[in-house]
Amino acid sequence: MKLKYFFPIFIAAVALMVSCDDEFSATLLDEIQVSQSYVAIPVAGGSASITVTATDSWTVENSLQWLTISSSSGSAGESTLTFSATSTLDGRNGEVKIKCGDKTQRINVIQGLATVATATCADVIAGPNDKTYKVTGVCTAIANTTYGNWYLKDATGEIYIYGTLDAKGAEKNFLSLGLEVGDEVTVQGPKTTYNGVVELVNVTVIKINKSLIKVDSVENAVLPVEGGEFISYLTCKGQGVSVEIPEDAESWLSISSIQSEGTYAVVTFKADANTGGDRGTTITFHTTDGTKDYTSQTKLTQKGAIINASIAEFLAAEVSTAQQYRLTGVITDISDATTGKLNIRDFSGTVYVYKIVDFATKGLKVGDIITIVGTRAAYNESPQVGGAVLESFIPVTTATIAEVLDKPVDANTYFMVTGEITEIVNATYGNLNLKDGESVIYLYGCYPGWGATGDARKNLLADKGIEVGDQLTVIATRGVYSGVAQLSNGIYFSHVSAAK
User: Which residues constitute the domain of residue 89?
Assistant: First the structure.
């Protein structure tokens, strides 16, 4: 839910008018129209209906857990959508999207009058979704500086802030707020839960109380493989400085000295030589005014002896026995199960692996996702991975659609599923329906291979010439959306054209 403001009841109807941003060009869309752009449901519970008129097939996106919609999709022509909700003690509202091709119609849904509750993080965690809260806490980490995704912590717990509006209520302008790790912040926004993580979405910042300690600058923020000194220069207006090194970095990072004069301090660290892959840590500095703890953070990274690479990057590298690479991909075939001679594929390409140490004892099979470390080798000028060691693997279970439908939602368990494509909903990202016997499941995303992000996820169907009627085999997890089962984040494995 992307709710920016809460208005008095007498202008609530204005706030609930449908919106169409630049992506959707106009309020009245030729492709899809609705009889009304808002839905009001009584506080005691009930239903309300609208009419949808479309020129093509359409789907509904509903992230409101309290709201039930009579259908998640429809075809060209006129249809009726019914919105239902049970009773609620607190007012709540949100947004539903109806998509037709590349156009989106937005429907605002209200049940009663949403109120703002002053709360602790624990109150938010225990409270209902879609309720709006005002919370005060300390910013402990910032994950995204464009949208403003960060963590807020108080004495009772920690919550995730997904999206922060600027002083004028606009999105994607987080840096204008000047918010830093360690600042005490009061925010207001609606709660949601995504994959088990409690979030406040598109919050409004009410107040920022700047931290009494700040990292002004650093030296050697990226250390070489052989290690060396990392120096942080601080301004501290509190009572002394203490340093927190995360437990996972204590074995290779230590404090050499702490020097202070007036409100300035210099902390010097020593990092050991790195025999593994790239590594890094976040160092936290603390001070106090006698009642509150204030913090600031800085990041340190160190180059490793192992390079994390895509298969395309690995293939482009020079042959060398000195440099180690870490590769992750799906096993596409095994030529020798005893010694581990096989091919692995990620989104960027395929490479032959000439033996994996102790492969026979691991019980690995075609379709499993493996991470190996090895060198860039070649045989008769054909590239291959040499001296490979298995670092980790994700088993993939072959299953029918019916079997997957009986499984619980789990983002960490992968299945290999084959079915006939009966409908392509979004050709760019590979959203489609698969059928196996009498069972049908929606595939949300079919990507070229493991590790694909951004534009690399797009246009697999066109690139492979995959069409309705083809038999498609994918690797995916069991997901759910608006109560409907689906395969999530599918990885392309193979297909058979219906034309053959």
Answer: 9-111
